[in-house]
Specification:
By secondary structure, the chain is an alpha+beta fold. It has one domain: Alpha-Beta Complex (tt1808, chain A). 24% of the residues lie in helices and 35% in strands. Strands 3-6-9-10-11-12 form a 6-stranded mixed sheet, with helices on both faces. The radius of gyration is 16 Å and the shape is globular. It starts with a helix and ends in a 6-residue tail after the last strand.
Length: 179
């Protein structure tokens, strides 16, 4: 008899701490370290978020599991911004509704999950803002106003326009700086 998904997830996570291990629609997904393009995009997003995050006393966490509920998947986004004292599920997992912003940089293997699957998991878990950065398309997609199975608002910005992060951020992002 196969071990429950949560047990297999924990085992793989412990065996491969250098990888991002997540469960997505009942699949265990092991992600290697990003390419230089992926990491460059991630750095540029982090650079844009760093000063406002520090000013507010928040933290940027890479490689933290997002707890979406007891019977739900476990996603590991590229970046998670959390308040001073976030509510943790385990030492490696923060509750989705205790985050301030989640960021994923799209790679060739993650596009479907980042665009379609993860927003449907984050919204019911109360993740307030989910930012999807796509270097290939040079677009940024912000999911906001979580409720039920889908976010109430999706805003897409390209290189020519800034993207406004709503409360608690109240921050315009210069999307052109991501490329």
């Amino acid at each position: 008899m196969a071990a429950p998904l949560e047990e297999r997830f924990r085992t793989i996570r412990e065996l491969h701490p250098e990888y991002r291990v997540e469960t997505v629609q009942g699949r265990i997904v092991v992600n290697e370290a990003g390419t230089w393009q992926h990491n460059t995009s991630l750095f540029r997003v982090m650079r844009a978020l760093f000063a406002p995050t520090v000013e507010r006393g928040w933290q940027i966490w890479p490689n933290i599991t997002i707890h979406l509920g007891l019977q739900s998947d476990r996603y590991v986004p590229d970046l998670t911004v959390v308040p001073r004292s976030p509510r943790l599920h385990k030492e490696y997992a923060v509750h989705g509704d205790s985050t301030l912003l989640i960021v994923d940089v799209v790679s060739s293997g993650s596009a479907y999950d980042d665009y379609y699957v993860k927003p449907r998991g984050y919204s019911p878990a109360g993740v307030p803002l989910y930012l999807v950065v796509d270097p290939a398309q040079r677009t940024v997609r912000l999911h906001s106003e979580p409720g039920g199975l889908a976010y109430g608002r999706e805003t897409i910005a390209s290189v020519a326009e800034p993207l406004f992060l709503p409360a608690p951020w109240e921050l315009p992002l210069n999307v052109a700086a991501f490329w």
